[in-house]
């Protein structure tokens, strides 16, 4: 029944929604759930590792397959294995949501769909990747239209959805040019232990978005050509940024065409350089925690705090979940944000945000005005932390830079005077006791003038909630309401 103020209870069920064909491509290729979601391989790895608390993480576009996958695993593993379905991740769905998994005491996570392959910190992971259609022969044919022959040093990178065809692609490339060197490291298909790739990151070689490739000592990255297989994506943009000195060819399986993309990297770098210049003029920074599962995010946050403090600027650490302009607009005192997230969520270029959002690499460049950017770009946490030593961007050098002199802004074309911030380690004296008190009163009155002052603190007043059986139905017609009516 419907009236002037509400719609029929059947409307949400009967409503037709639009779903992207690309997001559903995984289930359109194979109607068999067991094959599409690698049920037998998953069961084998679970039994092999003796896991008992399993968390299944689905992105929104694959959530409609969560129940069949759950039932297939449950029927095969048996009742002694507890399985939970995770959805609506706090941050990007490409990262493993270890926080949500720990809410149910999971000892392992199975991640479905697209992933950035970021290294986890606490829980082992099984990646069940999409399987999109790809013709290796067509890929080689389109690539050879743009190049006379296979380059001497070729790096193969692909979207994770084409991992199942990686061996065939390599075979075609190496068969077409036996004397050429094709560099590729397979994406792991076994259980990935937390921190398993930490030791590998310290070895010689390069990697992109944790899709590693090792180069011989006598081969430089600038000598290589990159072939990327995949559609337009954040992963492709990051590859163009981090490999601006390499020719990059992109084969799009959906369009069945190959194109040369390296010219676009210059425009991307120009936009990132402009964001870095805005960060150089800022006095107050907001460190956005965009992940709670990627390894080394906590050391990086501490490093950024120390670096900002060393040049007498102020920082606030914020955890706001998924970013949107409305959330960040609440922090009007912050002049620039720096996001600590996985590589695929680190570049935020939307014009809807009121303040610039930079990466940790860009922030370190901005804090050291004497450093000249050579065009190299890095999104790896470990290398950004160690960069202050290898590139001369260390805290000792930053502290030696004068902060009381005006600096010329390349953004506004004017001189900019720094606002001096009080060092937290300064001991109070009788001379500065009165100014300190006046500052506290001014800050308190400023907070009271804000329309939003933050969530109410109820420390110790509310007991933590436990996992309970939820209700079924829609807001106006839950099934438990019928049960309560029958009981009465």
Automatic annotation (TrEMBL):
Per UniProt, the keywords (alphabetical) are: Cytoplasm, Iron, Iron-sulfur, Metal-binding
Q: Which first-to-last residue range defines the signal peptide?
A: none
Q: Pfam families, from UniProt?
A: Diphthamide_syn (PF01866)
Report the GO molecular function annotations: 2-(3-amino-3-carboxypropyl)histidine synthase activity; iron-sulfur cluster binding; metal ion binding
| Cofactor annotation | [4Fe-4S] cluster
Instruction: Please give an example of a GO cellular component term from this record.
Output: cytoplasm
Q: Does the keyword Iron-sulfur apply?
A: yes
| Start-end of Basic and acidic residues biased regions | 478-488
- BP GO terms, sorted: protein histidyl modification to diphthamide
Q: Where in the cell is it found?
A: Cytoplasm
Report the main location listed first in the record: cytoplasm
Q: Which domain of life is it from?
A: Eukaryota
Disordered, as annotated region:
454-488
Q: Which InterPro entries match?
A: DHP2, DPH1/DPH2, DPH1/DPH2_1, DPH1/DPH2_3
Which pathway does this polypeptide act in? Protein modification; peptidyl-diphthamide biosynthesis
Function comment: Required for the first step of diphthamide biosynthesis, a post-translational modification of histidine which occurs in elongation factor 2. DPH1 and DPH2 transfer a 3-amino-3-carboxypropyl (ACP) group from S-adenosyl-L-methionine (SAM) to a histidine residue, the reaction is assisted by a reduction system comprising DPH3 and a NADH-dependent reductase, predominantly CBR1. Facilitates the reduction of the catalytic iron-sulfur cluster found in the DPH1 subunit.
Which family, according to UniProt? Belongs to the DPH1/DPH2 family. DPH2 subfamily.
- Supply the PANTHER family for this chain: 2-(3-AMINO-3-CARBOXYPROPYL)HISTIDINE SYNTHASE SUBUNIT 2, DIPHTHAMIDE BIOSYNTHESIS PROTEIN
Q: How does it assemble?
A: Component of the 2-(3-amino-3-carboxypropyl)histidine synthase complex composed of DPH1, DPH2, DPH3 and a NADH-dependent reductase, predominantly CBR1.
Protein name as catalogued: 2-(3-amino-3-carboxypropyl)histidine synthase subunit 2
| The organism of origin for this protein | Sistotremastrum suecicum HHB10207 ss-3
């Amino acid at each position: 029944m419907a009236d002037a103020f509400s719609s029929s209870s059947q409307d949400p069920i009967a409503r037709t929604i639009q779903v992207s064909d690309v997001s559903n491509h995984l289930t359109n290729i194979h109607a068999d759930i067991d094959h599409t979601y690698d049920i037998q391989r998953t069961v084998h790895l679970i039994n092999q590792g003796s896991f008992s608390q399993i968390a299944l993480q689905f992105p929104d576009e694959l959530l409609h397959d969560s129940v069949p996958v759950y039932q297939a695993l449950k029927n095969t593993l048996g009742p002694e294995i507890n399985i939970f379905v995770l959805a609506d991740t706090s941050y990007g769905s490409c990262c493993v949501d270890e926080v949500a998994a720990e809410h149910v005491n999971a000892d392992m996570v199975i991640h479905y769909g697209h992933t950035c392959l970021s290294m986890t910190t606490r829980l082992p992971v099984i990646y069940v990747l999409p399987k999109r259609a790809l013709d290796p022969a067509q890929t080689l044919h389109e690539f050879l239209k743009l190049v006379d022959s296979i380059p001497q040093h070729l790096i193969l990178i692909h979207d994770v959805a084409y991992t199942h065809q990686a061996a065939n692609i390599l075979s075609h490339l190496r068969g077409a040019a036996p004397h050429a060197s094709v560099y590729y490291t397979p994406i792991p298909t076994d259980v990935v232990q937390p921190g398993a790739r930490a030791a590998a990151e310290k070895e010689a070689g390069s990697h992109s978005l944790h899709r590693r490739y090792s180069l011989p000592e006598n081969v430089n990255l600038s000598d290589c050509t990159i072939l990327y297989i995949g559609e337009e994506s954040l992963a492709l943009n990051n590859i163009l940024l981090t490999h601006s000195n390499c020719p990059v060819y992109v084969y799009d399986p959906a369009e069945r065409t190959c194109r040369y993309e390296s010219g676009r990297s210059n425009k991307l770098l120009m936009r990132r350089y402009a964001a870095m210049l805005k960060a150089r003029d800022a006095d107050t920074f907001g460190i956005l925690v965009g992940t709670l599962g990627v390894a080394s995010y906590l050391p990086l946050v501490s490093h950024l705090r120390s670096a900002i403090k060393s040049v007498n600027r102020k920082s606030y650490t914020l955890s706001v979940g998924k970013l949107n302009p409305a959330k960040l607009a609440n922090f009007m005192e912050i002049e620039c944000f720096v996001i600590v997230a996985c590589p695929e969520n680190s570049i935020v270029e939307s014009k809807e945000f009121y303040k610039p959002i930079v990466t940790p690499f860009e922030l370190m460049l901005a804090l050291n005005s004497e450093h000249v950017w050579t065009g190299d770009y890095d999104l790896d946490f470990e290398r950004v932390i160690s960069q202050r030593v290898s590139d001369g961007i260390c805290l000792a050098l930053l502290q030696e830079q004068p902060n009381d002199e005006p600096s010329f802004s390349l953004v506004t074309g004017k001189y900019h005077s720094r606002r001096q911030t009080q060092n937290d380690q300064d001991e109070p004296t009788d001379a500065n006791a009165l100014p300190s008190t006046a500052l506290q009163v001014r800050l308190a009155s400023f907070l009271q003038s804000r329309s939003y002052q933050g969530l109410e603190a109820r420390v110790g007043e509310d007991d933590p909630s436990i996992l309970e059986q939820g209700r079924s139905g829609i807001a106006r017609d839950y099934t438990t309401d019928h049960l309560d009516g029958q009981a009465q």
